[in-house]
Design a protein that fits this description.
- The chain has nine helices and no strands.
- It is mostly helical.
- Helix 1 packs antiparallel against helix 2.
- The longest helix has 21 residues.
- The relative contact order is 0.10.
Protein backbone atom coordinates (compact mmCIF):
# COMPACT_ATOMS: atom_id res chain seq x y z
CA UNK A 1 0.00 0.00 0.00
CA UNK A 2 2.85 2.40 0.78
CA UNK A 3 4.25 1.87 -2.71
CA UNK A 4 0.94 2.88 -4.25
CA UNK A 5 0.88 6.05 -2.16
CA UNK A 6 4.45 6.96 -3.10
CA UNK A 7 3.73 6.21 -6.76
CA UNK A 8 0.75 8.57 -6.55
CA UNK A 9 2.89 11.21 -4.83
CA UNK A 10 5.51 10.88 -7.57
CA UNK A 11 2.89 11.19 -10.31
CA UNK A 12 1.41 14.21 -8.53
CA UNK A 13 4.81 15.90 -8.26
CA UNK A 14 5.54 15.26 -11.94
CA UNK A 15 2.16 16.59 -13.07
CA UNK A 16 2.41 19.63 -10.81
CA UNK A 17 5.95 20.36 -12.02
CA UNK A 18 4.87 20.09 -15.66
CA UNK A 19 1.92 22.42 -15.02
CA UNK A 20 3.83 25.22 -13.28
CA UNK A 21 7.55 24.95 -14.04
CA UNK A 22 7.64 27.73 -16.63
CA UNK A 23 6.25 30.42 -14.38
CA UNK A 24 7.22 29.59 -10.80
CA UNK A 25 10.61 30.20 -9.22
CA UNK A 26 10.01 27.11 -7.05
CA UNK A 27 10.14 24.72 -10.03
CA UNK A 28 13.68 23.49 -9.24
CA UNK A 29 12.51 22.37 -5.82
CA UNK A 30 9.51 20.62 -7.36
CA UNK A 31 11.93 18.72 -9.60
CA UNK A 32 13.90 17.82 -6.47
CA UNK A 33 10.70 16.54 -4.89
CA UNK A 34 10.15 14.29 -7.90
CA UNK A 35 13.53 12.67 -7.25
CA UNK A 36 12.79 12.52 -3.52
CA UNK A 37 9.63 10.54 -4.28
CA UNK A 38 11.56 8.16 -6.55
CA UNK A 39 13.80 7.11 -3.64
CA UNK A 40 10.88 6.70 -1.27
CA UNK A 41 8.87 4.75 -3.84
CA UNK A 42 11.79 2.37 -4.39
CA UNK A 43 12.39 1.99 -0.65
CA UNK A 44 8.71 1.34 0.03
CA UNK A 45 8.85 -1.61 -2.37
CA UNK A 46 11.98 -3.07 -0.74
CA UNK A 47 12.04 -5.44 2.21
CA UNK A 48 13.68 -2.91 4.52
CA UNK A 49 11.15 -0.22 3.69
CA UNK A 50 11.48 3.48 4.34
CA UNK A 51 13.68 4.44 7.25
CA UNK A 52 15.56 7.53 8.35
CA UNK A 53 18.60 6.67 6.26
CA UNK A 54 16.53 6.49 3.08
CA UNK A 55 14.86 9.80 3.88
CA UNK A 56 18.25 11.51 4.39
CA UNK A 57 19.53 10.08 1.10
CA UNK A 58 16.37 11.15 -0.69
CA UNK A 59 16.77 14.67 0.72
CA UNK A 60 20.39 14.73 -0.46
CA UNK A 61 19.36 13.79 -4.00
CA UNK A 62 16.48 16.28 -3.93
CA UNK A 63 18.87 19.08 -2.93
CA UNK A 64 21.37 18.07 -5.63
CA UNK A 65 18.67 17.98 -8.33
CA UNK A 66 17.25 21.27 -7.05
CA UNK A 67 20.69 22.86 -7.37
CA UNK A 68 21.16 21.52 -10.90
CA UNK A 69 17.67 22.71 -11.85
CA UNK A 70 18.38 26.20 -10.48
CA UNK A 71 21.54 26.36 -12.58
CA UNK A 72 19.64 25.08 -15.63
CA UNK A 73 17.24 28.01 -15.42
CA UNK A 74 20.20 30.26 -16.29
CA UNK A 75 21.05 28.42 -19.53
CA UNK A 76 19.50 31.02 -21.79
CA UNK A 77 20.56 34.13 -19.88
CA UNK A 78 23.86 35.93 -20.12
CA UNK A 79 26.23 37.04 -17.41
CA UNK A 80 27.41 35.46 -14.18
CA UNK A 81 25.40 32.79 -12.43
CA UNK A 82 24.46 32.67 -8.77
CA UNK A 83 26.71 30.74 -6.43
CA UNK A 84 24.08 29.48 -3.99
CA UNK A 85 22.70 26.66 -6.20
CA UNK A 86 26.19 25.14 -6.19
CA UNK A 87 25.91 24.81 -2.41
CA UNK A 88 22.94 22.49 -2.87
CA UNK A 89 25.19 20.17 -4.89
CA UNK A 90 27.17 19.51 -1.72
CA UNK A 91 24.15 18.02 0.09
CA UNK A 92 25.00 14.39 -0.81
CA UNK A 93 28.51 14.89 0.56
CA UNK A 94 27.27 16.42 3.80
CA UNK A 95 24.56 13.81 4.32
CA UNK A 96 26.98 10.97 3.53
CA UNK A 97 29.16 12.19 6.37
CA UNK A 98 26.24 12.69 8.74
CA UNK A 99 24.58 9.31 8.29
CA UNK A 100 27.66 7.12 8.01
CA UNK A 101 27.64 4.70 10.93
CA UNK A 102 31.35 3.97 10.52
CA UNK A 103 30.96 0.67 8.71
CA UNK A 104 31.51 2.09 5.25
CA UNK A 105 33.43 5.29 5.85
CA UNK A 106 36.22 4.53 3.35
CA UNK A 107 33.96 3.82 0.34
CA UNK A 108 31.78 6.78 1.32
CA UNK A 109 34.86 9.01 1.42
CA UNK A 110 36.10 7.76 -1.96
CA UNK A 111 32.69 8.17 -3.63
CA UNK A 112 32.27 11.57 -2.00
CA UNK A 113 35.64 12.71 -3.38
CA UNK A 114 34.72 11.45 -6.86
CA UNK A 115 31.39 13.29 -6.74
CA UNK A 116 33.03 16.45 -5.38
CA UNK A 117 35.74 16.39 -8.06
CA UNK A 118 33.20 15.81 -10.84
CA UNK A 119 30.87 18.55 -9.61
CA UNK A 120 33.74 21.00 -9.12
CA UNK A 121 35.06 20.33 -12.60
CA UNK A 122 31.59 20.79 -14.12
CA UNK A 123 31.04 24.01 -12.18
CA UNK A 124 34.42 25.39 -13.23
CA UNK A 125 33.01 25.86 -16.74
CA UNK A 126 30.44 28.34 -15.43
CA UNK A 127 31.36 29.73 -12.02
CA UNK A 128 33.41 32.87 -12.20
CA UNK A 129 33.48 32.82 -16.00
CA UNK A 130 32.61 35.97 -17.96
CA UNK A 131 30.67 33.80 -20.43
CA UNK A 132 29.45 30.80 -18.41
CA UNK A 133 28.87 27.56 -20.29
CA UNK A 134 25.80 26.66 -18.25
CA UNK A 135 24.56 24.04 -20.70
CA UNK A 136 27.82 22.12 -20.42
CA UNK A 137 27.81 22.42 -16.64
CA UNK A 138 24.21 21.29 -16.28
CA UNK A 139 24.60 18.32 -18.61
CA UNK A 140 27.65 17.11 -16.68
CA UNK A 141 25.92 17.62 -13.35
CA UNK A 142 22.92 15.64 -14.62
CA UNK A 143 25.27 12.76 -15.43
CA UNK A 144 26.55 13.19 -11.87
CA UNK A 145 23.19 11.98 -10.55
CA UNK A 146 24.58 8.48 -11.15
CA UNK A 147 27.41 9.33 -8.73
CA UNK A 148 24.90 10.60 -6.16
CA UNK A 149 23.03 7.30 -6.48
CA UNK A 150 26.30 5.39 -6.08
CA UNK A 151 27.09 7.30 -2.91
CA UNK A 152 23.61 6.51 -1.61
CA UNK A 153 23.62 2.75 -2.11
CA UNK A 154 27.17 1.45 -2.14
CA UNK A 155 29.20 0.37 0.82
CA UNK A 156 32.19 -0.66 -1.27
CA UNK A 157 31.92 -4.42 -1.26
CA UNK A 158 29.10 -4.99 -3.72
CA UNK A 159 30.04 -6.64 -7.02
CA UNK A 160 27.58 -4.43 -8.93
CA UNK A 161 29.40 -1.16 -8.23
CA UNK A 162 31.05 -1.30 -11.64
CA UNK A 163 27.55 -0.97 -13.14
CA UNK A 164 27.49 2.62 -11.90
CA UNK A 165 30.64 3.37 -13.88
CA UNK A 166 28.96 1.95 -16.97
CA UNK A 167 25.79 3.98 -16.37
CA UNK A 168 27.83 7.14 -15.78
CA UNK A 169 29.80 6.72 -19.02
CA UNK A 170 26.62 5.78 -20.86
CA UNK A 171 24.91 8.95 -19.59
CA UNK A 172 27.79 11.04 -20.93
CA UNK A 173 27.86 9.23 -24.28
CA UNK A 174 24.13 9.51 -24.80
CA UNK A 175 24.31 13.26 -24.18
CA UNK A 176 26.03 13.49 -27.56
CA UNK A 177 22.82 12.33 -29.23
CA UNK A 178 20.10 13.32 -26.78
CA UNK A 179 20.30 16.76 -25.14
CA UNK A 180 20.54 16.49 -21.37
CA UNK A 181 18.49 19.62 -20.80
Amino acid sequence: MASVLWAAALCGCILFYNAVHKWTPFAPFLMGMCRFCVYLLAASAALRGIDGEVIWKALALAAYVGGVSCLARKETSRGPINFWPALLLAAPLVFAGLIDDGSSWLPALVYSLVLAAWSSWALSRSMGQPEPNVGFTVSRLLAGIVLVDLLAVASGSEPWISCFAVWFVLALLLQRYIPAT
